[in-house]
Amino acid sequence: MFLASEHNPLIPIWQEVVVGTIGFALLCFVLMKFVFPKMNEAYEARVDAIEGGIKRAEVAQAEANALLEQYRQQLAEARTEAASIRDEARADAGSIKDDILAAAQEERDRIISVGREQLAADRQSLLHELRGELGSLSVELASRIVGESLADEARKKGTVDRFLTELENSDASPAGRR
């Protein structure tokens, strides 16, 4: 009933099944022996690289955070130190200013004192000079008015000194001032 040439497509040929099974087994053996281990190694290397990269990144991040914190502390210390240096400089500037002002006041007082002493000395010198000139002019004027010579030096000097002393006393009294 069945002819040999007719083949049922639903039933496989046993020789093909055997050859297919042997080929499949051989393919599985080659894949398991050579390909899968290489793929597994590549997969493990990739996983290690990724996990190692993540770990290195975490370590680097921790180091960066530690360095950042250290930098912030150093910056805060530097700011504190700069503020203290600035305050110290201000205090030094204030004391230097006070020293300079004190020295300037001392110099001013010294110059004023020297000036007053010089002025008093010049005044005394002028008074002495004027007294002599005033005395000689007064005696000469009196000689012309009286018509005789008042050549007696002692008399002349005593008269002039007495006149100038009376003049000074009248200027020094409150009634003599205006």
UniProtKB/TrEMBL annotation:
GO terms for molecular function: proton-transporting ATP synthase activity, rotational mechanism; proton-transporting ATPase activity, rotational mechanism. One of its GO terms (cellular component) is proton-transporting ATP synthase complex. Keywords: ATP synthesis, Cell membrane, CF(0), Coiled coil, Hydrogen ion transport, Ion transport, Membrane, Transmembrane, Transmembrane helix, Transport. Its main location: membrane. Residues 54-88 form a coiled coil. It is found in: Cell membrane. CDD domains: ATP-synt_Fo_b (cd06503). The keyword Calcium does not apply. InterPro entries: ATP_synth_B-like_membr_sf (IPR028987), ATP_synth_b/b'su_bac/chlpt (IPR002146), ATP_synth_F0_bsu_bac (IPR005864), ATP_synthase_B_chain (IPR050059). SUPFAM superfamilies: F1F0 ATP synthase subunit B, membrane domain (SSF81573). Pfam families: ATP-synt_B. Belongs to the ATPase B chain family. This is ATP synthase subunit b. It comes from Longispora fulva. The gene is atpF.
